[in-house]
Amino acid sequence: MSPTRKPVEQLDVLVVGAGISGIGAGRHLKTGHPAKSFAVLEERGAPGGTWDLFRYPGIRSDSDLHTFGYEFKPWRDRQAIADAPRILAYLRETVAENGLDAHIRYHHRVVALSWSGEEARWLAEVERTDTGERLRLSARWVFCASGYYRYDRGHTPHFEGREDFRGTVVHPQHWPEDLEHAGKRVVVIGSGATAVTLVPALAATAAHVTMLQRTPTYVMPVPREDAAAAALRRWFGEERGYALTRRKNILRQRAVWSFARRFPGAARRLIRWVNTRQLPEGYPVDEHFNPPYDPWDQRLCAAPDGDLFKAIRRGTAEVVTDRIARFTERGVLLESGRELEADIVVTATGLSVQALGGIALTVDGEPVRLADTVAYKGMMLSGVPNLVMAIGYTNSSWTLKIGLLCEHFCRLLSHLDAHGYDAACPEVGDPGMPTRPFLDFAAGYIRRAVDQLPRQGDRMPWLTSMSYHSDVRLLRSDDVTDPELRLFRAARAGGAKSPARPAAGPRER
Length: 509
Description:
Blueprint: E1 9-16, H1 20-32, E2 38-42, H2 50-53, H3 65-68, H4 84-97, E3 104-106, E4 108-116, E5 121-128, E6 134-144, E7 149-154, E8 168-170, E9 185-189, H5 193-203, E10 208-213, E11 219-222, H6 227-262, H7 264-278, H8 285-288, E12 301-304, H9 307-314, E13 317-321, E14 324-327, E15 331-334, E16 339-341, E17 344-347, E18 351-353, E19 360-363, E20 366-367, E21 375-376, E22 380-381, E23 387-389, H10 398-419, E24 423-426, E25 436-437, H11 444-447, E26 455-456, H12 468-477, E27 485-488
Parallel strand pairs: 1-2, 1-6, 2-3, 4-19, 6-23, 8-17, 9-10, 9-17, 10-13, 11-12
Antiparallel strand pairs: 4-5, 5-6, 7-18, 14-15, 15-16, 19-20, 21-22, 24-27, 25-26
Helix pairs in contact: 1-10, 5-9, 6-7, 10-12
EC number: 1.14.13.-
Family: Belongs to the FAD-binding monooxygenase family.
Enzyme class: oxidoreductase
């Protein structure tokens, strides 16, 4: 007699990931749709996502927490550019305060999602990462809050002779808890936000730290604490003071980005002037802090209270701009002929991008290739019904956009309920619409994965906005319906079946 298969659990919404986006989505569902059933599946054993995963020294945000935090929960800590333990405590408070513990299921990894137009439901194939058990869940909607980083491994290029090195090589994404760097010589390969964070943190106790970069990055000192935020809290109280600080910082972020994009030459000169004032007299600023690209072609790196520059002034850290020829027994040999001796080499060489957490998608039996889809309002995919992806901003705080996406998603659910629809599917009205990468950003980790990501169009609602103020209109103020968003009922109830794809895909540009 064959074993009885367990009945498939039925949910209204399946949220993938219990990081900052998934926790926010859970809170919005609890308050906006308290009658709907939902579960948050988290592959790891704790909430917090990035802030629980990464354990390297000094890990912190590079956005202020008044905008990186949730709109519904004031950030009360004195640190505006906050370290990971404080952010993690804030996220866990959010989970507890909103009763999300009962909804989060740890050690659950979504392997595949299959859409049935007849049922107007997703069937999720799930693996228990602690036991290996496989199970299935059925959900009306899927909210994918896994971001776009691959959490099981970072990006490390091939280095000739790496096996000859007698010291320790470590990637920040997999920092060993027992790695002792005090009194050691450390070389950090990279020049992005991770390297800029690591170098001053390591330099506090290491014998010497070298940041080895192939290409410079724009780095700006920013206050770790926001004096204006503290004053606004005193004058207006926690809630109102937080709201005013958030508004102030949103405007500041937008002003800085707009100035840099409109006047790149002036922005470059201003950043260089600030860097010169932070560095020792006669320091070769143009060699080490003058990138070949314009400001905000890639994300600017923040140095809280100028910590990187302070370490350079103290002589506990240095920046070397050169290319690696090979690893040696004692360290790293550069193309210039210089050898950097090291006990520890940190490969802060970037992250690996993986859209939708690497989940395999099928729609009515047809596999979905993400690169063939176009993003609708930056949150759904053409030809893919009832699936939301949570991708935040690259030019300001991630969570600003996530909050708006969650609001819009809840409004869309309300609209479908009010009019008796089961599903919504974006469809490109003009097959000839030109497209470009969804994340039109010059960062290396994006360029390496551009052919694996969705596209964006050249007009709304297919244009991926990176402007909070534009998205407030689009996602918060405008109607949730659109001529290119098809609403329908399940075929089993007599409605029209959802298409697996638009009739013809838009052309690439």
